[in-house]
Amino acid sequence: MPTPAISVAMSVYNGERFLAAAIESILGQTFGDFEFLILDDGSRDGTAALIHDYAARDSRIRPIIRENRGLIVSLNQLLGEARAPIIARMDADDISRPQRFEKQHAFLSANPDYGVVGSWTEDIDEQGRPYRVLGHDHPRNHDEFMAAIETRGPLLCHPVVMYRRDLVRAVGGYHAAFRHCEDLDLWLRLAGVTRLCSLPERLLLYRHYAEQVSSRHATEQQIGAALSHLAYRERAAGRPDPTEHLTELPPIDELDALFGRPGVSREVRSYVAPGLLYSKAGLGDHGFDLLVRHLHEGGAHDGMWRTVARLVRFGDPVRAARLATTLALTTLRAA
């Protein structure tokens, strides 16, 4: 078979609810020279049947049906099985606009020094209605991308990126230790070998709903983000990356030993704590204990009293009382 220009890489786990719309948005692209790899990662719903149904109607679809191994294993498998030199990522709950591939492929063809291109997105809810999100759009060129690393701003939206397959494989693909922020870790590693940006056009409808990974694993995602930035700084300083060969991230209290200097554990808690203040999931899991530890270490109180009220609204008066007590004690200690 002729080598396609693009390999579309989609991993699905129990994604039946939104999958048809996602698949149809790919099959409706104005740039049609692609193979469409859809990997069912051991779903227990009707995902596999839906994939087979679409594959029977469009020969560009290559279904991969197997037992559950997790997203990072799936993404690396898709990297290995892709035949095209360019890979377009796609998630099973989003919708690509028709000209997405045409515009991103044209950009990579015209800019060989760029290895990754994303795009801006339009946010929608589970019914497809507009979803209001505060924050900045993604960097439009590599200089903006590098500046966003320093300010810890948004870098790229993973399900709308298109990248050069061999570049990603050369840096080791997706690293197993960075579950739920494997994309951020990859962008920071690629920043040392290529240029990255997003097109200032909204080429993807990005869906928000309660069951998505970023909602369910807020604390782990924040900790991984902090460590990916620390590892980036180690590499930028010419030091070895202590996370490079990890299969899972160690407990926060072991990070001083991992990085070989004191203060790393405290720095990670300081990074993560502000990101948990508005997260019901983060305040409801071990992120709450991290927040309390951060305050006992002298962390800033900004927004913390409002979080007490937020915990009451979340239906957790016990944690609200504990946070209020911690704030009062640490305030007295600092006086």
From TrEMBL:
Query: Start and end of every Glycosyltransferase 2-like domain?
Result: 7-170
**Protein's UniProt keywords contain Transferase:** yes
Keyword line = Glycosyltransferase, Transferase
What one GO molecular function would you report for this record? glycosyltransferase activity
Q: Which InterPro entries match?
A: Glyco_trans_2-like, Glycosyltransf_2, Nucleotide-diphossugar_trans
Q: Which family does it belong to?
A: Belongs to the glycosyltransferase 2 family.
Name of the molecule in the record: Glycosyltransferase
